[in-house]
Write a structure and sequence with these properties.
single chain; about 70% helix; about 0% strand
């Protein structure tokens, strides 16, 4: 069995070279372990986003947050990506327990998007909406890559092209034909 269905506290304890009592003492239950893993996912992601250096080009910095940070995290830690970001492992109720860690990481992303707004290249988008769109694109790209559906050897280029196009599109006030957009 793969995923959480295949996870047992005994198996985990054996793999870690400890006892089941130690695992239960630390996490309380298997669900407690899942919550800790979800929180860990967002802690790692948030720290990596915060650790990106700020350059003179906030749009390029946001692209790097997607290509370098989000992609590296998802590809390097697919189980944490699944538990924390996609929430496909464990019950939805467990995600509520690591929501504060998710909110902290998202605030770091919003800080990167705020720099674009201050630079005057966020168009008519709100920081929150742009951050949600950015996150959705990165999550989708990661899911497609993890399923092996990207052209082999072209993954980084595909990510960079997609994230760059999204960030460049933020500068537009609105797409023609979009809700509230005017056309000439």
């Amino acid at each position: 069995m793969a995923g959480l269905e295949g996870l047992s506290v005994r198996g985990l304890a054996d793999s870690a070279g400890t006892t089941t009592r130690a695992v239960y003492s630390l996490f309380g239950s298997k669900d407690g372990l899942v919550v800790a893993l979800g929180a860990r996912a967002f802690s790692m992601l948030g720290a990596a986003i915060a650790g990106l250096p700020a350059t003179e080009d906030p749009a390029a910095d946001l692209v790097e947050a997607g290509v370098t940070v989000f992609r590296s995290f998802a590809i390097g830690h697919p189980s944490l990506f699944s538990i924390g970001v996609q929430r496909t492992m464990g019950s939805p109720e467990l995600a509520i327990e690591f929501a504060s860690a998710a909110a902290e990481a998202f605030a770091g992303l919003e800080a990167k998007v705020t720099r674009i707004k201050v630079a005057g290249v966020l168009g008519g988008h709100s920081v929150r909406d742009a951050a949600c769109e950015f996150h959705a694109l990165c999550e989708g790209l990661a899911a497609v890559e993890l399923r092996g559906q990207m052209t082999s050897g072209q993954e980084t280029r595909i990510w960079r092209d997609a994230v760059t196009a999204l960030v460049a599109g933020f500068a537009l006030a609105a797409w023609p034909g979009a809700s509230g957009a005017t056309t000439s």
